Amino acid sequence: MKIYEDNIEQCDNELSEIKEQAKRYSLLRVTSFLASLILIIVLANEGMIAGLWLAAPVSIITFAYFLDRYNKLNERKNSLTHLRAVNKNELLRLSNELDAFPTGSKYLERDHAYITDLDIFGAHSLFQLLNRTTTESGNSYLAKWLTNPAKKKTILEKQKAIQELAPKLEWRQQFEVAGRPFENKESEYQKLLNWFKTPEKLLPNKIIYFVGAFALGVIATTLTILCIIHIASDDIKYYSPLLFIVLLINFFILKKLTPLAEEIIDSTHNNVQTLGGYQMLAAAILSEKFNSKKLIKLQTNLYQNDRSATDEIKQLRKILEVFQLRGTKRSDNNKFYGLFNVAWLFDVYLIILVEKWKKRNRDHIRPWFEAISEFEALNSLAGFTYSNPGYEFPEIKEEPYHLSFSSIGHPLIKASNRVCNDFSLNERGQIAMITGSNMAGKSTFLRTIGINLTLALMGAPCCAKTPKVSEMIMFTSMRTQDNLIEGVSSFYAELKRVEQLLEQIESGRPIFFMLDEMFKGTNSEDRYKGGVSLIKQLNELNAFGIISTHDLELANLAGKHLIVANHSFNSKIKKGELEFDYKLTDGICTDFNASELMKKSGIKILNDIEKLK
C-alpha cells in the first residue's frame, strides 16, 4: 500500500535531518565543554574567584542543555527507526515475504484439531501474517485465539473493536513502536507472575525495620565522619571500635536479608525491560479515546483507585532498576552499592518498597498485563484488516451447520497468484466430496476454507466476499505421517485422527471436518469400504464437512441416500503441457493426469496393460 511507502519515505527524510542536527549538537557539546574548561583554567590562574563562581554553573547549564538536546534527538531517531521498521514489515506482509517474522512454532500441538494441517504456525504461516505483538503474553494471546474458536458474542465484540482500531493507523503504529524496544528481550513472564503471589516478609513489621535501619544508618554515618575528623588524633580510638560494632550489626542484618533480596532480584532481573515495555504500551492505550464496548472495558482495566497501570508499573520498574545494582551470588555486585548498603542498609528500604508495591497491586497486575496483551492481539488483527481492505468480516449465523463464502481465496498466497472460488455447506450431515487430478488444488482448497474459518471464528475478516459462518469446531486430517519414535504408521496415525474426530463429535457441538485422501495407507478395497462406512456415520452425526479423494467410487455415493455433493478440480493438456485453472466446478472430476505426470518423470507407461493382468 502506498501509505506504508509514504511513511517510510517520511521517516527517511526526518532521520536524515536528525542525523545532521545530532552532528551539530554533538560538536556544540564538545565545544562548550572545551571552552568552559579553558575559561575555568584561565580564571583560576588569574585568581578571579567571582568569575569562577559565575562561569562554573553557566558552563554546566550550557553543557547540560546541549546534552539534553542530543539525547532527545537520539530518542526521536530510535522512535523513527522503529516506525520505519513497522511500515517495512507491513510491506513484507503484503507481498507474503514472511521469513523474517517469528514463526510461533512453540505453540504447535501435534494432536490439536487443525493447526498442524492449516499452516497456522511455523514457516509461512498465518501467525506470521497476523502477528504484530511485541510482548510474550501478547504472542500467547494471539496464539490462543488462533487455536480456540470463539463463541458468537465474543466474535462480534472483537469485530467491533477491530473495526474501530483498523483506521487508527497512526495510533496503532505508535502503539507497536512503544513495545518494539523491548521486543524479544529475555523474559520470564510466568516467573514474574508467580513472584507477585509470594507473601511479604518485612512489610508486616515495616516500622520496626524502617526506624531501625534509619537509626543504624545515621549512627554509622556520624561515626564515619568523626573517624575522618579525628583520623590524626588519639580520639579515633574511641570512635573506630563503635563504628566497627555498628557495621558488624549491619552486616549480620544484611546477611539475614540476603536470601529475600536475591529472591526478588532472581525473580525480576530478566523482566525489568519487559516491565518497561508494558509501561509504554499501557501509556499508549490510556492516551487514546475508544468507543467500542470491548476497548473501553480493556482501557478501564488499566486503572486502579485513580492510579493508572502506567504510573504503578513505572514505579516498580524504577525500584527494581536500583535493586539490580545490588547483584547476587550469581552476578557481579556493584561495589558502590555494597559500600553504602553496609552503612545505610539500602536492602531494607528497597525490600519494603517492593513489598508495599506488591501488596498494593497484587490483584491488579495480571489483569493489567492481560488487558495490554489483548490490546496487542486486537491491534494485530486491526493491522491485518487495514492492510487488506478487500477482506470482509463474516456474518455469524444463529442456525448451526452453516458455512458459505463467495470468492474465497488463500491469504498466504500472493493476491496476483490467488484463485478464488465460491463454496457453501448449510445442512447437518452434509458432505462435499471433492475429486481432482494431481496438483489441481484440492488440498490447497481445503486449507483455504480452513484458514478463513480460523480467521472468522477469531473475529478477523476473511479473504472472501460475503462470508457467513455459524459457531462450530473445526477438525482436519490432512498431514498424517509415520512416527518412527512411537512406531506409528501413517495409516494408523490417520485412524487415530478419525478416532479423535468421532470423539469431538460426541461433545455435542457442531463439528466441521476436512479429510484429505481418506485411508490412503491401505488397499483400494478396504479404503472404499472404510470410506463409505465413515461417510454414512458422519451423515448421521452432529457434523458436516469436506472430503477430498482420487477414488471415483466414493464420489459416486452422491444421491445414494447419503448427503453428498460432488465438486472437482480439473486439469487439461495443451501442447503436451499440463494446465491448471484451480477453479472449483460441480460434479466429479473427468480429467486425471497421473499417467501424464508419470511420463514426465521418465516412466514408460504401457498402453496394453490389460495383457499383463
From TrEMBL:
Keyword field contains Ribosomal protein: no
Alphabetical list of Pfam families matching this protein: MutS_V
Record flagged with keyword tRNA processing: no
UniProt keyword terms in alphabetical order: ATP-binding, Coiled coil, DNA-binding, Membrane, Nucleotide-binding, Transmembrane, Transmembrane helix
Source domain of life: Bacteria
SMART domains reported for this sequence: MUTSac (SM00534)
Stretches that traverse the bilayer: 26-44, 50-67, 207-232, 238-254, 336-354
GO CC annotation: cytosol
GO MF annotations, alphabetized: ATP binding; ATP-dependent DNA damage sensor activity; mismatched DNA binding
DNA mismatch repair proteins mutS family domain segment(s): 429-613
Coiled coil (residue ranges): 1-28
GO biological process, one term: mismatch repair
Identification of the protein by name: DNA mismatch repair protein MutS
